[in-house]
Amino acid sequence: MKKRQDYISWDEYFMGVALLSAKRSKDPSTQVGACIVSDKNKIVGAGYNGLPIGCDDDEFSWEKQGAFLDTKYPYICHAELNAILNNIGMDLRGCKIYTALFPCNECAKAIIQSGIVEVIYLSDKYEGTDIFKASKFMLDKAGVQCRKVESKISKLVLSFHEGDV
After folding, report:
1. Which of 8, 89, 139, 150 could bridge across to 144 with cysteines, CB 3.0–4.6 Å?
2. What percent of the chain stands above pLDDT 70?
3. Residue 134 confidence (pLDDT)
C-alpha cells in the first residue's frame, strides 16, 4: 500500500489552525485567527481577536461605527497580538506567523519586536489603507518576509461525527 497523496501542505495546515482559531472570536463582523510556528514546524502560539482576559464580552460594544469609546476598536486585542502573548513561553525569534488577515500597524510592531521573521496571510483586503501601508513599510524595513498563502485546496471540512474518524 502506498502513502496517501492528498494530504495538506504545511502552509495549509498552519493556516487551517489560524482559521480554526478564528472560530473562537465573538466579534459578529470579523473573525481573525493567528498561529505562530517555530522553525521546526511546531505550533508555539495561537490567538484570535477578542477582549482581554477578565473583560466580560457582554459588557463591551461590538459596534464598528459610532463614537470611538462606543465601538469595539479601543478594546479588542487582535489575533496576532494574542498569539504572541499566548505563546508557550519561548523566544519567538525565527518563528513564522500565519494569519487570516494581513496584520495592522500595531500588530506589525509586536511581530517585529518579538523576532518573528515571516508573515503568511490569507487576505489583504485593507491593503490600500494607511494603517496597512504603515504595517507593510515597517515589516519591510525590519526584514520581515510577507507572503500570501498558496493553497491547492479552496476549503477544508471538519467533522465531529465519530463515524468519520
Report:
1. 139
2. 100
3. 98
Which H or E run includes 14? helix 10-22
Q: What three-state secondary structure class fits 140?
A: helix
SS3 state at 31: coil
The grid coordinates of residue 141 equal: 524595513
The pLDDT tens digits for 25-78 are 999 999 999 999 999 999 999 999 999 999 999 999 999 999 999 999 999 999
pTM for the whole structure: 0.94
**Per the structure block, which three cell numbers stand in for 18?**
489560524
Alpha carbon distance 57, 26 (integer Å): 8
**One-letter identity of residue 31:** Q
Report how far residue 64's alpha carbon sits from residue 50's, in angstroms, rounded to the nearest whole number.
14
Q: Which of 12, 59, 63, 80 is catalytic?
A: 80
For the residues of 58-121, what is the DSSP string, one character each?
TSS---SSSSGGGSSTTTPBPHHHHHHHTS-SS--TT-EEEEEE---HHHHHHHHHHT--EEEE
80 catalytic residue (yes or no): yes
Asked if residues 92 and 84 have their Cβ atoms less than 8 Å apart, the reply is yes
How far, CA to CA in Å, does 53 sit from each of 36, 57, 82, 83, 161?
Answer: 20, 10, 10, 13, 32
